[in-house]
Amino acid sequence: MATEIPIEIFSNPKHEWHAKNDPVMGGESTSTVTIDTDSGVGIFDGEVVNVPFLDAPGFITMETKAGRSGKGWIKRLLPKAGDFPDVSSCSALQMVMTSTTPEYKGYRVSFGNVHVPGGRYAYGYKANFKAPNGEGTVTIPFNQFSAKWDDATGDQIVTCAENPKYCPDDETLKSMQTFALWGEGVAGNLHIELKSISAVDCSGNGVVVLDTAAHNTRSAAETVVEQQVRDGSNATDSFLHPIGVVAFVAFVALFGTKLIRRKRKDGAYNKVLP
User: Fold this and answer.
1) Residues 135, 86: contact at Cβ < 8 Å?
2) Can you say whether residue 124 is alpha, beta or left, with left for phi > 0 and alpha for psi between -120 and 50 degrees?
3) What is the pLDDT of residues 67-83, one digit of tens each?
4) How far apart are CA 194 and CA 231, in angstroms?
5) Which of 84, 92, 113, 171 has the lowest CB atom count within 10 Å?
């Protein structure tokens, strides 16, 4: 079995996924996202239609973002984080899916928050892909993604091969922060059912063997940390009284969220390329 690092397994998802449709000039595209853990799939279904004012196709997405994180008991009490693994040792993205609309030509996938000046709504690295006819595996090398893409059509303007500064950087690959599948720039219906998303052709420390049936993706370090918490051997966690933890979590929820939102508005979390 090939070594890979799981990003999402839909039989036991760690991210919260939702649909987002074009809001520009009265966009009328529609989509839904359904997570069916019994069947082990994330279903992305919808239709991209022309934005009336622009007379051009809009977009729909199935997306997720990283959430809160913490340590020890704090991490357990906070909402599900949905953190992204470090995939900087890998060379490609792989998605296992089933599709009933392989003829649709506007499939795209993106990750990250990097921003290139001049592209008002273009954030992250994006690449096109073709959905399989039925069940299949879609593999996209990371060097096929680019940060320089048209926010009106989703098409790449400058490829990674044409200018390496638009290739995915290590900082983003170490924590993608956001991930989205798109129907964009092409009118039509789409329907895909995702089983898993992972990074493949990995090397070095942190590589795991993907087991989609059992979702055995924890690293040895994570197991040791959890054992320390259970045994009370972590000095940082052991002194925290449950009442103090609850009070601290309430403080973080009230003031931390406001600070994060303010920073996001200021673009503090978005890396800008020259």
Assistant:
1) no
2) left
3) 654 445 554 555 444 68
4) 38
5) 171
Pairing between β-strand 134-141 and β-strand 92-99 as defined by DSSP bridges: antiparallel
Could you tell me how many residues make up the chain?
A: 274
Separation between Cα atoms, residue 127 and residue 99, nearest integer Å: 18
> Percent helix, strand, coil in the chain (nearest 5)?
20, 35, 45
Looking only at the bridges linking them, the beta strands covering 56-57 and 156-158 are: unpaired
d(CA 150, CA 271): 18
Q: How far apart are CA 137 and CA 98, in angstroms?
A: 9
Contact status, residue 181 vs residue 60, Cβ threshold 8 Å: no
DSSP 161-180: TT-GGGSPPHHHHH---EEE
DSSP helix/strand/coil, 237:
helix
Nearest to 124 by CA among 155, 146, 144: 146
Could you identify the residue written with the tokens 């989609």? 212
Question: Of all helices (H) and strands (E), which one includes residue 74?
Answer: helix 72-77
Query: 202-256 pLDDT, tens per residue?
Result: 986 544 545 444 444 433 333 333 333 333 333 334 333 444 444 544 544 554 4
The pTM for the full model equals 0.73
Rg of the chain taking only CA atoms, in angstroms: 20
Compute CA distances 237 → 73, 232, 251, whole Å.
Answer: 7, 7, 18
- Considering Cα of 180, then 98, then 21, then 150, what sign does the dihedral take? positive
